[in-house]
Design goal:
Number of strands: 12
CATH class of the largest domain: Alpha Beta
Strand order of the largest sheet: 1-2-3-7-6
Distance between the termini: 45 Å
CATH superfamily of the largest domain: Aminoglycoside phosphotransferase (APH), C-terminal lobe
CATH topology of the largest domain: Aminoglycoside 3'-phosphotransferase, Chain: A, domain 2
Number of helices: 14
Strand content: 5-15%
Structural class: alpha+beta
Number of domains: 2
Helix content: 40-55%
Order of helices and strands: HEEEEEHEEEHHHHHHEEEEHHHHHH
Bound molecules: adenosine-5'-diphosphate, magnesium ion
CATH architecture of the largest domain: Alpha-Beta Complex
Length: 393
């Protein structure tokens, strides 16, 4: 898709401050400082602070290409509007788990939002060994509410399709289709892995059963429109403390299969479960159990109270749906485990392991568990996933 970028201008620290003042979001005479703090791959994040009151403000700006993929991978600026719009939608269903958007501008590709610097990115926190006792309860509730309230069970099917139109996100979906569902599964397509993993990777490329299941999962990602997804729900998209949780960065939002958000969060907990031992490992197992329990409980409650479909009382329908979400989720989680290990975008959870032998063992385990999840997803539950992980780590 071609796009007119003529009104686009990259912000600098200075123009970000000028903009915040112009919008009246900071005092015109305040003493302000601004830093670009983006650690992501696709965007810039400006953090403006009042040096007297310490109050902050965030301006996120998309640029017309992926920062890491280079100018050769052009990316629509529309993703900024999708992100702002998704934050507003999700916040309307779960205000406690989504930052407030103060302003957005489609031409400048910016979202001005609540400063969450008092919280820590969960991936970093988990790697540091921090505990998040409420994290999975919050994310379970977040996924259940966003999945239910944006679905045909809550919206009229015709208005759901209307909402979905505002969230057609072909270019960002393509990133997922290529980097999660395609490249990692073919030897001849781009990849990035340590040579010691070649045999384990070869095993996946040669396994026609895995490749067939990945084809089915990719098809489901491309064709199903169950709910408005976050689309990038890994632990790097979550800010938290012991008591608070906020989900950021929904630029990949689109109407897709509910299992995709469930699966990404699940897989990113599994990276931690693989790398940890003893009580730390058990803590992650608890987070996995709590996530799935709270998701299912919350979704069930919403179904019973708010579902207007004449089919809502049909015996077996809700269990059918919850089982479908779970099967999909374990399959998607398997793809995420594999792509983060041999695909182009890795996770710090594995890469921070300094000792090479330990690191290769952890990565071999994520490849094996990923394969297992993809192949066995129809018959798995959380205890079986945990058991499979224990056997391989
Ligand atoms: P990307 O899409 O490029 O991954 P993110 O939205 O994930 O961008 O933001 C990148 C980083 O910027 C985050 O990891 C975090 O450190 C910082 N950041 C983003 N949003 C906020 C916010 N609302 N408050 C504080 N820091 C933020
Ligand atoms: Mg991000
Ligand atoms: Mg490849
Ligand atoms: Mg992002």
């Amino acid at each position: 898709m071609t796009q007119n970028h003529s009104n686009f201008k990259r912000l600098t620290n200075e123009t970000a401050i000028t903009l915040a003042k112009k919008l009246g979001l900071v005092n015109a005479d305040a003493s302000l400082k601004c830093n670009e703090i983006g650690d992501g791959n696709l965007n810039y994040v400006f953090h403006i602070t009042d040096t007297v009151t310490n109050k902050g403000l965030i301006i996120k700006q998309a640029v017309p290409y992926a920062k890491v993929l280079g100018e050769s991978w052009p990316l629509t600026l529309k993703r900024a509007a999708i992100e702002a719009n998704a934050l507003i939608h999700f916040r309307s269903y779960c205000p406690e788990f989504v930052p407030q958007v103060y302003y957005s501008d489609e031409q400048l590709a910016i979202t001005v939002m609540e400063d969450l610097s008092h919280l820590k990115i969960v991936r970093t926190g988990l790697i540091d060994g921090d505990s998040y006792p409420l994290l999975s309860q919050h994310i379970g509730e977040y996924v259940a509410k966003t999945a239910f309230y944006t679905s045909d069970y809550h919206l009229e099917p015709s208005s759901k399709k209307e909402v979905a139109r505002h969230f057609t996100n072909p270019e960002l979906c393509k990133i997922t289709e290529v980097f999660i569902f395609t490249d990692p599964f073919f030897e001849e397509l781009p990849g990035d892995f340590e040579v010691e993993l070649k045999d384990a990777a070869q095993k996946i490329w040669n396994d026609q059963e895995v490749i067939l299941e990945v084809a089915k999962l990719k098809q489901s990602f491309e064709t199903e429109q169950e709910a408005l997804l976050h689309g990038d729900l890994h632990t790097g998209s979550i800010f938290a403390s012991k008591t608070e949780t906020k989900v950021i960065d929904p630029e990949f939002a689109f109407y897709g299969p509910v299992g995709f958000d469930l699966g990404q969060y699940t897989a990113n907990l599994l990276f931690q479960a693989v790398t940890r031992n003893g009580a730390g490992k058990e803590e992650i197992f608890t987070l996995l159990h709590e996530f799935w329990n709270v998701f299912e409980e919350t979704y069930t409650k919403l179904w019973e109270v708010q579902n207007k479909s004449p089919f809502r009382h049909v015996k077996g329908y809700l269990p059918y749906l919850l089982t479908k979400f779970k099967k999909d989720a374990f399959g998607f989680a398997g793809c995420e485990l594999i792509r983060r290990t041999i695909g182009l975008s890795h996770v710090a959870d594995l890469n921070v392991i300094g000792d090479k032998e330990t690191r290769i063992a952890a990565k071999t385990a994520t490849l094996e568990i990923g394969t297992f999840l993809i192949k066995k997803r129809e018959e798995l539950d959380v205890p079986a996933v945990i058991e499979a992980l224990k056997q391989r780590t």
